């Protein structure tokens, strides 16, 4: 079981550290243990309880009342809350608590409800992505285990595949996009969402997925003749090789517009070929899909 500092709880729950301490001292809300150096650490059960309590307090319930409830009563009260499609913080907290409990059924229910109320794209942007960012913080702290993260990632992957399959056919004259991940890159969620977003906007995609050797792109471009090539760089290639990778992709694709997304593509001091762009945010990429700036960049 992972152990969280109070600053971890603050980042993950949105509740200020001094408020957490007050709730702990006044209401015995959490049960931290102390390290040999007398530092409080908190368990997954503490985090899960805090997430649920913060959800109820955000809905107007008094902490003095909530603190008297058992964990089971708190969970029941959270489920009974009136749903607000735009209460993203509550939805993210609910998903995070369900992930920590390995409650696949609850996660699936929450994602389905959010997609039905917000639309699938908005659910991904305002609920799923903030959730993944919080999980990233937990990875850095060593306080989430692979089973929890893999369960959530696989559920999101299933949702994106199903949503993409449900889209209508694309006109034969539409722009064409190739989407792939570099060799040894397995983090696929961002690329799957980009594939969905491009298809949603009535454009063709050739989705090549994970772990594609760069040298295969030449044959792909000759056969498919795309207008744009997209890749996401999360852990691969090595940070020192990103510029070389971008040059290789540009050469194999004969100067076509290339979109490189992800943290490695935004590192300070990185120089990309003139036909490559690196949008800072997913919303920037979504704006690019309907604009001609990618084609204009390649023509310079």
TrEMBL record:
> Sorted alphabetically, which CDD domains does this protein's record hold?
HTH_MlrA-CarA
PROSITE patterns per the record? HTH_MERR_2 (PS50937)
Domain (HTH merR-type): residue spans on this chain: 3-72
Cite the GO molecular-function annotations of the record: cobalamin binding; DNA binding; DNA-binding transcription factor activity; metal ion binding
Question: Which keywords describe this protein according to UniProt?
Answer: DNA-binding
- Keyword Mitochondrion part of the UniProt annotation: no
The answer to keyword Transport applying to this record is: no
Looking at the Swiss-Prot or TrEMBL record, what is one Pfam family this protein matches?
B12-binding_2
Q: What's the protein called, per UniProt? A: HTH merR-type domain-containing protein
**What is the organism of origin for this protein?**
Hymenobacter lapidarius
Q: What is the lineage of its organism?
A: Bacteria, Pseudomonadati, Bacteroidota, Cytophagia, Cytophagales
């Amino acid at each position: 079981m992972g152990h969280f500092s109070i600053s971890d709880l603050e980042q993950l729950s949105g509740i200020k550290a001094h408020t957490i301490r007050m709730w702990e001292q006044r209401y015995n809300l959490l049960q931290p243990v102390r390290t040999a150096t007398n530092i409080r650490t908190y368990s997954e059960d503490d985090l899960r309880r805090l997430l649920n309590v913060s959800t109820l307090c955000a809905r107007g319930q008094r902490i003095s009342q909530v603190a008297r409830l058992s964990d089971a009563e708190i969970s029941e009260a959270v489920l009974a809350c009136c749903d607000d499609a735009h209460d993203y913080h509550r939805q993210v907290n609910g998903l995070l608590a369900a992930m920590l409990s390995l409650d696949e059924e609850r996660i699936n229910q929450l994602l389905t409800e959010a997609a039905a109320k917000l639309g699938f794209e908005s659910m991904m942007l305002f609920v799923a992505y903030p959730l993944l960012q919080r999980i990233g913080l937990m990875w850095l702290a060593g306080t989430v285990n692979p089973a929890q993260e893999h369960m959530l990632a696989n559920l999101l992957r299933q949702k994106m595949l199903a949503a993409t399959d449900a889209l209508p056919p694309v006109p034969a004259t539409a722009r064409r996009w190739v989407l792939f991940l570099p060799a040894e890159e397995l983090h696929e969620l961002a690329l799957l969402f980009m594939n969905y977003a491009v298809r949603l906007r009535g454009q063709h995609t050739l989705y090549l997925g994970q772990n594609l050797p760069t040298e295969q792109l030449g044959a792909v471009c000759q056969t498919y003749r795309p207008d744009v090539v997209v890749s996401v760089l999360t852990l691969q290639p090595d940070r020192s090789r990103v510029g070389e990778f971008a040059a290789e992709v540009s050469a194999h694709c004969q100067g076509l517009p290339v979109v490189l997304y992800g943290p490695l593509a935004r590192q300070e001091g990185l120089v990309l070929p003139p036909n490559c762009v690196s949008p800072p945010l997913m919303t920037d990429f979504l704006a690019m899909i309907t604009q001609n700036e990618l084609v204009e960049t390649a023509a310079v």
